[in-house]
Specification:
- By secondary structure, the protein is of the alpha+beta class.
- The protein has two domains: about 40-60 and about 75-350, Beta-galactosidase, Chain A, domain 5 (Distorted Sandwich), CATH 2.70.98; about 360-595, no CATH class.
- Helices cover about 40% and strands about 25% of the residues.
- It has helices at about 5-55, 80-85, 225-230, 335, 350-370, 375-390, 390-405, 410-420, 425-440, 450-465, 505-520, 530-550, 555-575, 580-595, 600-620; strands at about 95-100, 100-105, 110-120, 130-135, 140-145, 150, 155-160, 165-175, 175-185, 190-200, 210-220, 235-240, 245-250, 255-260, 265-270, 275-285, 285-295, 300-315, 320-330, 490-495, 500.
- The strands form four sheets. A nine-stranded antiparallel β-sheet has the order 7-8-9-10-19-16-15-12-13. A six-stranded antiparallel β-sheet has the order 6-5-11-18-17-14.
Length: about 625
């Protein structure tokens, strides 16, 4: 290849890179412009709704010719404001906004969401998926307007506009001063837009007030198969502005609370597969968050109670608008990521290392296979084979390292016979290490597969129970791969184990037992303590059986496949790739060619120095 060709290739590469960067910038600019246009259009629509509401006559039942202020002079009135006293009494009515994704019911008592149904999903029992429902769910403003009031205590004046799929609730303080909630539900979206408008309230709210309290409380319903499994993946999440990281308020705790003293961009009440997220485009000033789980035997089939008391920035003026948005929908990784608000990070995928494996390896592979295959059991099988192929070079190196140590066992036994005394342990170890050095055996070579497999296994522990794609998807005897499978329900509960028998977990434990037994035959018996062998052979399978019995069936199924494939790989390598007699001759020839005293590594030198110091200390003690 001549110089001109090299320069041509470099020039073409530079042009391609530059063109790619330019296209990326253009695409981001177009997205930003579209976002601005959508925001302006939404604000104009809300302004039109608000203007129409202003032009309507006052919807307060006041008799003609009666001074409304005189109607509150009688004793027993709760508020000094006549309009507020009239709004205390009324008949509760429900109003509905819905699209293809969600159905939100509102009550005029407080002008707040009463229930949310997430369409296209069912509970484990086959009922419509009501994420929350009932009068215990509350969204209200708590403020001082000459007297302390909470908007959830009043019956607000409703106005439904079908053309815009919007709903307005108004709480009047007089004919020209009111608090107004405007809800707009976009088509084919899980987002519910909410504007809190304060009109003429500067005459009631003192000028030194700089923030208002927004109270949000919901009871999330129990929706999945196993209460404990659902509980383990439910919590409260929140995000600070100008960062992509998401904070979590506890997890796997019966209850938790936290007071946040800095600004917050959004708060999420998160169930295992669905979430309610409250977003403040202008950020909250601070907030207090708390949750508690209900007893599994509660008759209302409730999972957890979530509460947020958030402080909204306020400026005294004749008119102020506070834009908020709600997300009521599923915890799908890519669907949440599309909002570009770090919503996808509420999915518990693990820390930096484990989470990165899930985001950049497991989830893309899973979704790619899901485009062409609808059977999730087959998808998990192909994913397992794919992962095993990736780490197969390290598996082969580990197997060869074990084989080399196995064929050198007669030489190791000779060294042990040469140094039978305990005080000669250092000499025995030095000579053993010298033998390994001459023959090129890496003592740590067997650790490579474990080094790569463990993070992937931990990532699977996170991915399967939180993957909404597996929710209520059956395979073989399992009716829901995201929850546990059961071939026998027990009439009693076994501590730590549960009240059922998971066949996938049982098969996984058996495969782990036979794999450990097979693996021990491939290793040098003198390299493992008898107690360690017993733990690997019996304790670890039993422990994993207990742990996985109540976890996701997909996880136990994956672990079962992983063990079976590893056993098959071991048999193939032992049967077709390892000739122990030939390997022994090769190692012996290499040892003969090596210098009589091979150069020691710095680590080996430090190790020997530590051993000498230890022996010297023991002699001094004697």
């Amino acid at each position: 290849m001549n110089k001109n060709t090299v320069w041509a290739i470099l020039l073409i590469g530079a042009i391609l890179v530059g063109f790619s960067i330019y296209n990326s910038k253009v695409a981001k600019e177009q997205q930003r412009e579209q976002f601005v246009r959508d925001s302006i259009a939404r604000q104009e629509a809300m302004e039109a709704i608000r203007q129409e509401e202003r032009n309507k006559p006052l919807a307060v039942p006041v008799e003609q010719g009666v001074d409304i202020q005189e109607s509150v002079t009688s004793a027993g009135q709760k508020y000094s404001n006549a309009y507020l006293n009239l709004s205390l009494n009324g008949e509760e009515s429900l109003y509905v906004l819905e699209n293809e994704k969600i159905k939100v019911s509102f009550t005029n008592k407080g002008g707040q969401p009463y229930s949310v149904q997430i369409k296209d999903f069912k509970t484990y029992n086959g009922d419509s998926l009501l994420f929350f429902s009932g009068p215990s769910n509350r969204l209200s403003l708590d403020l001082y307007a000459g007297e302390q009031i909470n908007t959830g205590d009043f019956f607000l004046v409703p106005n439904f506009i079908e053309e815009n799929n919007s709903l307005t609730f108004s709480l009047f303080f007089d004919q020209n001063a009111y608090i107004e909630y405007i809800y707009v539900l976009d088509k084919e979206s899980y987002l519910l837009n909410m504007n809190i408008n304060l009109v003429g309230m500067d005459r009631y709210i003192p000028r030194n007030v700089t923030q208002l309290d927004l109270n949000w409380n919901i009871d999330i319903r129990h929706l999945e198969k196993g209460f404990d499994n659902e509980k383990n993946y439910s919590a409260i999440s929140y995000k600070f502005p100008n960062t992509k990281d998401v904070e979590k308020l506890g997890q796997r705790k019966a209850e938790a609370s936290e007071s946040i003293k800095t600004r917050v961009e959004w708060v999420a009440f998160q169930q295992q597969f669905f979430s309610a997220i409250l977003i403040a485009d202008q950020n909250f000033n601070s907030g207090d968050l708390s949750y508690r789980f209900y007893d599994p035997s509660n008759t209302d089939t409730l999972l957890m109670n979530c509460h947020a008391n958030m402080q909204i920035p306020f400026q005294s003026s004749a008119e102020q608008s506070i834009p908020l948005r709600f997300y009521f929908g599923p915890n799908g990784f890519y669907s949440l990521k599309a909002y570009d608000r770090s919503f996808e990070k509420i999915i518990p995928l693990g820390g930096v290392l484990i989470g990165s494996i899930s985001r950049f390896l497991i989830i893309p592979t899973f979704n790619f296979l899901n485009r062409f295959i609808s059977n999730y059991g087959l998808i998990i099988l192909l994913m397992t084979i794919f992962i095993k192929l990736i780490i197969s070079p390290f598996t082969y190196r580990s197997h060869m390292s074990s084989a080399k140590m196995r064929v050198l066992k007669p030489e190791i036994d000779k060294i042990s016979e040469k140094y039978p005394k305990k005080e000669d342990a250092m000499k025995k170890q030095q000579e053993t290490m010298a033998l390994y050095k001459k023959t090129g055996v890496n003592v740590m070579g067997g650790c490579w597969p474990m080094l790569f497999q463990m993070p992937i296994l931990f990532a699977m522990f996170r991915f399967f129970p939180g993957s909404i794609e597996l929710r209520q998807e059956g395979f073989l005897w399992a009716d829901d791969l995201s929850g546990y499978d059961s071939i026998l329900d027990l009439p009693f509960n076994i501590p730590l184990y549960g009240n059922h028998i998971s066949l996938f977990a049982l098969l996984m434990a058996l495969s782990m037992f036979f794999y450990s037994k097979m693996n021990m035959k491939q290793q040098v018996s003198s390299q493992q303590m008898p107690g360690m062998q017993g733990m690997m052979l019996y304790f670890m399978p039993l422990m994993m059986l207990v742990v996985c019995n109540r976890l996701s069936a997909a996880l136990s199924y994956y672990y079962l496949l992983s063990n079976l494939i590893t056993m098959l790989q071991t048999w193939i390598m032992q049967r077709f790739f390892v000739d122990e007699d030939k390997l022994y001759r090769q190692l012996k020839e290499k040892a003969e060619k090596s210098p009589a005293t091979p150069q020691k590594s710095k680590f080996q030198q430090r190790l020997e120095q530590m051993q000498r110091q230890q022996q010297k200390q023991m002699k001094n003690r004697k």
